[in-house]
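Subject: Sanity check before I submit

Could someone independently write out the structure tokens for this chain? I want to compare against mine line by line before I put it in a report. The sequence has 512 residues.
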Amino acid sequence: MAVSALFDFQTLNVYQLCQWTAWLISLFLIYNVSRLYLKRRELVATYRPFPGPKTHWLYGNAHMYTQNGTEMDDIRQYSEQFPYGFTMWMGNFLPALLICHPEYAKAILSRQDPKHKMLYDFVVPWIGRGLLILSGPKWQQHRKLLTPGFHYDVLKPYVKLTSDCTNVMLGKWEPLASGKESVELFHHVSLMTLDTIMKCAFSYQSNCQTDSENEYIKAVYEISYLTERRIRFFPHHSDLIYYFSSHGSRFRKALKVAHLHTDKVIKLRKESLKQESELEKIKKKRHLDFLDILLYAKDENGQGLSDEDLRAEVDTFMFEGHDTTASGVSWTLYCMAKYPEHQQKCREEIREVLGGRDTVEWEDLGKLTYTAMCIKESLRLYPPVPDIARELTKPITFCDGRSLPKGAVVVLNMYAIGRCPSIWEEPEVFDPMRFSPENASTRHSHGFLPFSAGSRNCIGQNFAMNELKVAVALTLQRFELSSAPGKEPLKLSQLVLRSVNGIHINLKKVES
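---
Independent answer below. Compare away.
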């Protein structure tokens, strides 16, 4: 009897324990489901004034972000239906107002809202918390510190270096100019812009253009691709899940290559600055290059940049100074191939300015007026950075009376803004005269944003424009460009504007 009673008592305790566990699990699930439901209702209410495309019940609008080269034009078409902006959902809990009108862009860029943390944090393992990511007082400190590195006295000697690097690329194109095969631009141009930034900003002879298997370029491609894929695949937003995924493993391997390259550049420059001959060169130049500014920088307490901050700024500028410029140069040359009448006008101007020289000089840049107009029109249609994201630190009311509260996320789509039909007449037409001096005064101040605008505009935009002018001028002087039949590029936003199938053109040597 005693044993039987004890057994019944133990059975009862186990039963009660299971019952209580089930109740606790149920309460936990109900609490979290209720919390998510309320969060979803709050988000829907926040973005209700900004209707957008129809969403899927589970993944929102994520199905639009494919890799088939149509998403950019899909967004542009939606911008015609929703002229100022519309809400896009990545799943059920990541909405953002996608801005496609200059007036809305102006309202955002006149503020100091930080970059959207969730999206930009995915690039932090690569470029650290440098000027691109920072906000607040530390951003202001770094911006003030780095601004002298882009003074025109500093940029002047870079024109010769850029010419040299461009000529190396063009020399490699010589054997390709008589063949029937098209040339894929982006890879060649990326090597050239990396070579340029290494020599100009870091006093580093990379020889990357003659190294056919450049590991850094491959690593940058891999990191860009994997970062974009992570943003678009919600389970990979979890650091733990991403770490054990195949993409996470690939990301870490590419990251190691990129950081080893950066560390090597910094180390070599530190060692060279110990030499008296190198210090004499700096005295003769009477200015510091970008990396030298970072190495010599001191705050008000006499403290230099930490190793972490130093690497972050070098990685940031190495990415922004070569990958975005490579996109701009590649798409501009694509436009020159696509619109031969404008290409010929540029070539005539270039011949008149250069007079047969194969090196562009500082004084030439201001004389390449029509070429500059063509470059800007190309950047309008194909902005190197297709979108940027901000998280509002205070409420905002737009020009049409609609509002968003603090904490809302906005994405400025430069591709749609550059093709906004209410601002640009016949926006799909390639018309460089939009940027003529007489038309500049009538253009909307925020209708052309390849380098963003406001206090957080691109610090290196003058460097980039100079490099674009040099690359385009020397290329058109030596080669006639034409479209490659059947190889129309499929546009892809992958941190910078790329193409799924590459950017192909045909080359023909210009007869002297």
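---
OP: Matches mine. For the report I'm noting this point. Residues 50-509 form a domain with the Cytochrome p450 fold (CATH 1.10.630.10).
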